[in-house]
């Protein structure tokens, strides 16, 4: 059986039945295994891809989501060099759930500029589930799931770790990360610390156009995009075959600037001399983010029943800073008696409490898993500018999942889930007075109090069958997503999208129907995976640009309103690898997605940020191990991306492009020590191009230019047998 198949087995086992007491350490990118796959734990009929920690470091980009975007069907909606959020088959934001250590990550993921607060150095493996997974994770998984796990715990008493140094040429990044783990009997522990600093990143152009105004870039640097990150995580607990309880504590802190000529400032009014004095200072506009996370994962083996209980607490604290700028009837001079700091434009503070309980047991020839999820969110706002209201949200779900072995090579799957959610938004009134009708004045109500309840019954059925080297899977299901506070109650300027957004209190939950197929053929030296899909939304929620402009508090920005429409989506991914010789490997990755609105104001158009068709070819060479050099590799890849003419006005089309990348690495061994060396050259020929899923292409700002990335890893410690 092909070595790639073991990845799917591991991902499946961890997805549906993550039995902590039976985890095995996996450090190789690829391993071979023989035997029949269905003798292992259930996989389900969804398409699953996995990257190990070694692969994440090998293909490391500015953020974890940019790293994962190498996988076919995965994109990153980026803003700058180090912030991005995931997109699976053209769906992103609150339609993709990111699950870390069993708990759904909750930040301010509705915003374009709000990247995921996750340290990619601390990730042991990343699994990507393509296709709706609402039957397992609830509302936000309507487009797919990215599941992140820590490194597997040591199997014997011992202590080990790795120290990494990293530097990047494009934005002068420097920093490092220390990751450790240990075990004493049944007690396990570990932790890590990461610190990175970077300057303004460079693009292969001298001029960009903001609101049709030409903005010159000094030395091709995007001014005020510098930043710094500091993260830490600790974990510890008890681990055995029949019982485990592990605690995870982490804090993610980052501060970075936004392109000064494009975020809420008049391009003509920017003091370029001030910003260009240093490429490493962080001026206004900027934001600071702290994300605290505490998770407790528990497993109990009761022979006939296996129980999992996951508890989580998260606090996301985001502050957006900017120079005070008066619009409309805002006071031209900031009042001295204001309790809000003059530079605090917006503040979001979200606290989240989560619980997930699962029970797995056998009933005749069925393996059943029943479970429940619960979540409570409390999000408050502050600052002198308004976009979304404060809100409180409760959600709960009950599900049952059935795995039935029809024959030795055939598995059937079925799932049923009921969800209920309640959201309550708080009223918001301007802190200043505006002129109203009949020569009256008063404070405008931006958001009124709102209470909405949503519920839905979703289902999923699937099958998987093995025909020798050919594996086939099919999955059909229904999913849903409840509207979020931004879609229901937004009423303000979103400088990061150059728009004035208005919510719609009457929105209904999204309903989605999907069909996923998977064909995997793995004879000797060849691996082929083809995964087509079809998706239909009966009421997709989207941000519709109108013909109106808000000249008062919208600073002249175009008004966008949240609306609903029917949407049809289809596409496919292709992965093909061929190893003609033991040391040579050729890999081809391709993706295509097409969306069309079937009703509403934008009938006939696609969806915003729809990724263009693309193909990536990689040729790699691995050297034979020697006394001092092991796991030495060289690789060159080229990604061809087609032009994207299917846009939603005011989006503009993007041209086709090709980008080359180079990678090399080795393990240098001497005197009993090991040094892991990795080199990447991204955008090898300094190509100027626009990525259609990038935020900054809205102002024709191209992607990063040539970037040399050098990382040095120093492993230490060992695992002893006791």
Using brief descriptors, characterize the structure shown:
globular, 722 residues, 5% helix, 5-stranded mixed sheet, disordered N terminus, 22-stranded antiparallel barrel, mainly beta, single chain
Structure description:
It contains six helices and 38 strands. The protein is mainly beta. The chain has a 22-stranded antiparallel β-barrel. A hairpin with a 2-residue loop joins strand 5 and strand 6 (103-104). The longest helix has 12 residues, at 5-16. The radius of gyration is 25 Å and the shape is globular.
Task: Give the strand tally.
Answer: 38
* Radius of gyration from the alpha-carbon trace, in angstroms: 25 Å
Structural class: mainly beta
Strand content: over 45%
| Alpha plus pi helix count | 6
| Largest β sheet strand count, sense and barrel closure | 22 strands, antiparallel, barrel
Helix content: under 10%
Low-confidence stretches: 1-43
Cα separation of the termini: 35 Å
- The averaged pLDDT comes out at 87
Principal-axis shape: globular
Produce a short descriptive summary.
The chain is mainly beta and 722 residues long.
Blueprint of the fold:
Blueprint: H1 5-16, E1 47-52, H2 53-58, H3 64-68, E2 74-78, E3 84-88, E4 91-92, E5 96-100, E6 103-104, E7 125-130, H4 134-137, E8 144-149, E9 158-168, E10 173-184, E11 187-198, E12 207-210, E13 213-216, E14 227-239, E15 243-257, H5 272-275, E16 286-301, E17 305-321, E18 344-363, E19 366-382, E20 391-407, E21 410-425, E22 428-429, E23 434-435, E24 441-442, E25 445-447, E26 450-467, E27 470-481, H6 485-489, E28 491-494, E29 499-502, E30 510-521, E31 526-550, E32 557-581, E33 584-597, E34 614-622, E35 629-641, E36 657-670, E37 673-682, E38 707-719
